[in-house]
Amino acid sequence: MTWTSPELPVDILELTDHEVSASIRWLWQHATAELDSPGCGLVLDRDDLPGTATVAATGFALAAWCIGGERGVLERDAVHDRVRATLRTLEHSVPHRNGFLAHFVDAATGERMGRSEYSTIDTALALCGAIVAAAYYAEDAALAAAVDRLLQRIDWNWLTDEIDGRTVLRMAWVADREDDYADGADADGFVSAWSMTAEQLPMYLLAAGHDAVPAERALELWRGFDKPVGSYGGHQCIHEPAGTLFTYHFPLAFYPFQRVRDVDGVDWWANAREASLASKAWCADQAGTWRTFAGGLWGPAAGLGPNGYVVNGARPAIIEPHADGTVPPVSLFGALPLAPEEVAPALRVLRDEHPGAWNEWGATDGVNLEGEEPWYAASRYGLNKGATAILGAAAMGSTLVWDAFSQHPWIARGAGKLGFTAV
Asked: Which is nearest to 187 in space by CA: 200, 205, 199, 174?
């Protein structure tokens, strides 16, 4: 059955509309604004770390700004100007190795920040947003050409490896032993591998779209990561190792997986729905242990907790899920297009019982009820605001990002080489 956008209850529609607009404004205001700056358009990793930007948050922002222009939250011509400048930044200011961008960069200059790694997933998210922007401003041939150059310069074969009889993409590359993640690097500087189900699904579309990656290699990569099947609370899904919810939601922000089945017949949209509902069921069963879940919130994922950045999870999982009772609201807005009836009660709890979780930028990055007083993260992450903006808009019926991304020639070519079929 073809997926259609849900009819949200009026109060949830109003709340989501407010949150999407606030998230778009956050992404706009927390990016380098000067059009002639070498770092124009780079978005902060989080708003309490001035000067530190990430290319992944910038990718989410490129798509979210287009939604802002469409919705009237931002001025369309101003978005166009910033998009052009941001693509210039990504092409000329941000350091890369064989096309793969440095993860953390100086927001003012685009220079590599500290000992940042050169990351596959962060580069992929940056390019996903760039593709959306190029398609949205289709009349701008120079913008389209800039995106094509960014896509073409990536050498996917450089970060492709054979491990235990499987073809996989490595996660990152580091220049020397002093760099971030160097402890996990091999002698050539390659770090770990995408050997598990996680947030990397759109990365394979980008790789398959490249003319230097033959269809056979593209399929080997798609089939090269583990796809363990597990269940919790009657909800069965292909799951990631630690059960953290954002890994199921992030891929849906850009590609409309509900419109296709993969080469093996997998419905990744339905899979994300089942994973979300399994997370909800697990949290309900943990209510006797964690006050946050007893209070009606659910969706352990990645974000800010009382003790700093935390990655929490739920069942199903391969390893024991980490838990500290923190829930990031992005989990709820991310699950909204998947399961609106199941998400709505938790959003009402967040709205009605936790005024401290909201400010001019919308929902906080994390809520934790385990202490004597409720704890709300004071700052916001660019990644989570980006995912909230795009998936929240999708829940309200916007197909702008999905249409722009999936219809781009590069992505359409990649989907064909991967054997995706329309439903």
From this structure: 174
Average pLDDT rounded to a whole number, residues 228-238:
98
- Positive/negative CA dihedral, 299, 305, 306, 312: positive
Domains of the chain, with CATH numbers? Answer: 10-422 (1.50.10.140)
What is the tens place of the pLDDT at every residue in 169-198? 999 999 888 888 888 899 999 999 999 999
Is the overall model pTM greater than 0.90, yes or no? yes
